[in-house]
Design goal:
The chain has 156 residues and is mostly helical. Helices cover 69% and strands 3% of the residues. Strands 1-2 form a two-stranded antiparallel ribbon. The radius of gyration is 17 Å and the shape is elongated.
Length: 156
């Protein structure tokens, strides 16, 4: 049986994951030589910081409409969804981008699950917006991946 967790535990874990994502994207920005990839990773790091701040606001009780109580029991199996392989210094850009895309996919799924547990209101909208932004991040990373993995040749 899966371990039961409270909303507070889930929010703490989500905040930690947002911090890890910021660190990951800053690290990845230093690993890539392509300006477009570096710029994208730096921008993603900034957006993840905004996500962290919103989650902290929710955890502090600053968001009210549709909020769950901090001791509300949830079972999201977060670790199973958000575990990521270690970053290696010799990773190729394609692998780095796939790692980032998978992380964004997991974040999207996490926020969708969390939103589903909330009643309609400000919190549910916030979580759905975070999910949408994570999906947008995944799309951006995958776009860059297609450019790297399938570069355009002179013949078209």
């Amino acid at each position: 049986m899966a371990e039961k967790t409270t909303l507070k535990t889930v929010l703490d874990k989500a905040i930690q994951k947002e911090i890890e994502a910021q660190d990951l994207y800053r690290c990845l920005s230093r690993m890539v030589v392509e300006d477009s990839a570096r710029d994208m990773f730096l921008e993603l790091s900034k957006v993840e910081k905004k996500h962290e701040n919103l989650l902290r606001k929710y955890a502090r009780g600053k968001l009210r409409e549709g909020a769950l109580k901090s001791d509300h029991v949830l079972d999201y199996r977060i670790a199973e969804k958000l575990e990521q392989p270690p970053i290696k210094s010799d990773m190729k850009l394609g692998d780095i981008l796939l790692l980032a895309a998978n992380r964004e996919k997991a974040s999207h799924e996490f926020y969708i699950s969390l939103a589903a547990a909330h009643l309609p209101g400000e919190i549910k909208k916030l979580l759905e917006e975070l999910a949408s932004q994570e999906l947008e991040h995944k799309h951006r990373v995958e776009d860059l991946y297609t450019e790297v993995a399938f570069p355009q040749t002179a013949g078209g």
